[in-house]
Design a protein that fits this description.
mainly alpha; single chain; 2 strands; signal; 8 helices; 179 residues
Length: 179
């Protein structure tokens, strides 16, 4: 009987630790959640770093179902309330995937952020590329190194560099000068 009780306690301990996230997994989930929060709430880099630490602490403190909305969840929300302005707080509370980042379904944790952003390996929060310039020549590039590569037609040579550029009918809009 004593041996059975020890085996049950050991099995319960192993299964409870299997529910808990590893440190690396918690870091990755906290980073992804914080990226999406920074994008939607418009946070500064200083707020981003602080929010990342708060999210990481919360995710590391959750081990089982009872920890989802316990004191660590309340501490997370009160910390966010302290440095969000009114607009950010209302957006945060209104977005259930931020306010309650974890839920419990079918005996396992579910990260609610993936219901809103299903592509986990999508790029993190980046400044979007500007529209293509209207004139030839270099444009200022405060948007990141890969923006020019995604513009349509980047890397193409201008028409006058192509072989046969002066051939009649080369352009669809080609019209003879005289009738």
């Amino acid at each position: 009987m004593k041996r059975l009780m020890i085996m049950m306690a050991l099995a319960l301990t192993v299964s409870a630790s299997a529910w808990a996230m590893s440190y690396e997994e918690a870091m990755a989930e906290a980073r992804y959640l914080t990226d999406k929060m920074a994008y939607e709430l418009g946070l500064t880099s200083r707020e981003y770093d602080r929010m990342y630490r708060i999210n990481l602490d919360y995710l590391l403190s959750v081990d089982d179902y009872d920890d989802l909305y316990s004191s660590s969840w309340r501490a997370r929300n009160s910390a966010f309330r302290a440095f969000f302005n009114g607009r950010q707080w209302n957006l945060y509370v209104g977005a259930d995937y931020f306010y309650r980042p974890l839920s419990w379904r079918n005996g396992a944790f579910v990260h609610n952020i993936y219901m809103r952003y299903p592509r986990r390996h999508a790029p993190r929060y980046v400044v979007p590329c500007p529209p293509p310039p209207r004139r030839y020549g270099p444009s200022p590039r405060p948007y990141g190194p890969d923006c020019r590569d995604r513009r349509p037609g980047f890397g193409r040579r201008p028409d006058f560099d192509r072989p046969g550029f002066d051939r009649p009918g080369h352009h669809h809009h080609h019209r003879p000068w005289r009738d």
